[in-house]
Amino acid sequence: MWAIIGGTGFEKFEGFKTIEELDRNTPFGQTSHGFKRVSLEGEDVLFIPRHGTAHDKLPTEVNFRANIFALKKLGATKLLGFSAVGSLAQECEPGSLVIPEQFIDRTKGIRKVSFCGDGIVGHTSLAEPVSASLVSALKELCGEFSFKTHFGKTLVVMEGPNFSTKAESNLYRSWGGDIIGMTSYPEFALAREAGLAYMNCCFVTDYDCWKDDVPHVTVEEVMRVMKENNKRAFFVAKAMVHCKKESVVKACEKAAGLGSALMTPMDSMTSEQQEWLKVLLK
Questions:
Q1: Domain count of the chain?
Q2: Which listed residue (56, 105, 206, 212) is catalytic?
Q3: What is the mean pLDDT of the chain?
Q4: Is 206 a catalytic residue?
């Protein structure tokens, strides 16, 4: 089953028809507000607005573990995460779609980044953090898009909520960062732990603050560009959800999840831990 997490500017899509509001409660707290099952032109999809329907959660405040757990529990196997990002590279212009295949974590240790801890030890490989099957399918589909799509890029994840200084922006460029955002980590890591096939679909809104011949990033500029990016994102979601390639239909990263990462025996865990862990391992 497909799931979609919508970030800034993607809290709702005109083409989604709500089927039912879903229970937000999980062993890790509540999901973001607005968790629902929707119909995307006949296909059932689970949907969570990452920051809530009223956009009232800072990136640091998003309960990433609850969001991923809730999707997994209700049968999600494939997840598209839509994000608004700044560009650190000339070719990744505002309005374009960028698919990061690598990430650099620059968050500050405030977020809950793993389902492990509190007596459970596990180490999941994040060497290949996104689903090759989903990326391959999108490469075939993007010829239908009216906007540019870039693959094989690196996303720098910063803590936020404020935007970068110019020194930071140029530092990230020197590291090989192509785009910058605030929410992809730990989302991609938790999706990998849960065995979900994950792809981060990032729409560029601005050139951050390294490029002096254009205005530096502001909330006003981000929201202006996001109106068009929302339409583009829906087009991507529709194309992927309706893609019937066998590699996409059967896409699953279960083998790369916690099942191969745990070091703590199940019988050493509490009954509550065993119960929620079984959901993530199924």
A1: 1
A2: 206
A3: 96
A4: yes
